[in-house]
Design goal:
Insect_cuticle, single chain, alpha+beta, structural constituent of cuticle, flat, signal, Cuticle protein
């Protein structure tokens, strides 16, 4: 009985192994020609490069804006004037130490040239000791955490 079972299982296993096809075919061989050199040799036409023409004038503008919000303590602004290659302007802001920082600048072909000044004297408030707030927690009916 053992011999018959062993032979039967061997025949079934051999038949089953022979019936399963290879699910993945072998990959195709890599091409042997150099596509880059071939494309350079066969290229015989080059389209002309047409650069767009843009009408332009020397820049000329002026702008100014400012924020002065006493409630939140915001105080800053900016103004600028440009005429051709020369730009002049200034901006300012109130610093956290209560000083006013002003920057006056000009921009020319050599770059950005700022002059920075400060008005007022730095004032630092005395720090207050941390006072934690305590809350008494009373769980209500139906609360999961008792």
């Amino acid at each position: 009985m053992k011999a018959t079972t062993t032979i039967l299982l061997s025949v079934v296993a051999a038949t089953w192994a022979a019936a399963i096809p290879n699910p993945y075919p072998s990959p195709a061989p890599a091409p042997q020609q150099d596509f880059f050199e071939d494309s350079l040799e066969t290229a015989s036409y080059q389209a002309p490069v047409i650069q767009p023409v843009y009408e332009s004038e020397p820049a000329l503008y002026t702008f100014q804006w400012e924020v002065n919000d006493d409630y939140y303590g915001n105080y800053y602004g900016h103004q600028e004037h440009r005429d051709g290659p020369i730009t002049r302007g200034s901006y300012y802001t109130r610093l956290p130490d209560s000083r006013l920082m002003k920057v006056e600048y000009y921009v020319d072909e050599y770059g950005y040239h700022p002059t920075i000044t400060y008005e007022g004297e730095a004032q630092y408030p005395t720090p207050q000791a941390y006072q934690p707030v305590h809350h008494n927690v009373h769980p209500g009916k139906g609360d999961l955490y008792l």
